[in-house]
Amino acid sequence: MASTSDIRKGLCIRYNSDIYKIIEFLHVKPGKGPAFVRTKLKSVSTGKVLENTFSAGHKLDDVRVETRSYQFLYAEGEMYHFMNTDDYNQISLQESALDAPNLLKEGEVVTILFNTEDSMPLSVDMPASVILEVTYTEPGVKGNTATNATKPATVETGATVNVPLFINEGDKVKIDTEKGAYIERVK
Q1: What residue stretches are annotated with the Elongation factor P C-terminal domain (predicted)?
Q2: Is the pLDDT of residue 75 over 70?
Q3: In this structure, which topology does domain 129-186 adopt according to CATH?
């Protein structure tokens, strides 16, 4: 059993007869009244996100998880295929198990959380950032870089990311997978 003080991003808990992963949380200590924790929970079976508030000291039924490294092979409709980097076993997961499927490039290594009780995959944790090549973007206007203006760019996975005006087609950019935002240009 865990309590509200153990809440962290990525913790898997059993709630309302389903397993949920905490994707956001905020400890709140108001000036008047007891403290509480406001959370956003994502169902690992349906992908549905719900918000819930736990009072301070509330007991949570946490799920023991095991992490394994898998390499992304390819996507086929709603199914994403991964290969274990240790024993080369392959598994297929629904798109709803991934946080940012549009930023997943073939060959990328991800961490998959497994329930230790029944060895069922719960969710896929992307790396903190990925490096992708820009396949299409409008050319930047020379001398228009004094402001923090951005333009949309399509990367090799098909995702659209806002990038600074000096980024051109063929440039490699580092993208934050949590927010889907541009970090920097990579040489």
Answers
A1: 130-185
A2: yes
A3: OB fold (Dihydrolipoamide Acetyltransferase, E2P) (2.40.50)
| Residue 182, CA atoms < 13 Å, CB-side half-sphere | 24
* Of 148 and 5, the one with more pLDDT: 5
Give the C-alpha separation, 18 to 48, whole Å: 11
Q: Name the strands in the sheet holding 160-164, side by side, starting at the edge strand that comes first in the sequence.
A: 160-164, 150-155, 129-137, 172-176, 181-186
Higher pLDDT, 147 or 71: 71
CA distance 9 to 21: 8
- Determine contact, residues 182/163, Cβ cutoff 8 Å: yes
Architecture, CATH, for domain 65-125: Beta Barrel (2.40)
Q: What is the pLDDT of residues 89-134, one digit of tens each?
A: 999 998 888 888 899 999 999 999 898 888 888 888 889 999 999 9
Domains 2-62 and 129-186 share a fold: no
Among candidate residues 84, 126, 67, the one with its CA nearest the CA of residue 102: 126
Q: What share of the chain is helix, strand, coil (3-state, %, to 5)?
A: 5, 55, 40
Of 173, 170, 163, residue with least CA distance to 140: 163
Residues 33 and 52: their CA atoms lie apart, in Å, by 18
pLDDT band at 52 (very low <50, low <70, confident <90, very high): very high
Beta carbons within 8 Å of 50's beta carbon, 6+ residues apart: 20, 40, 41, 43
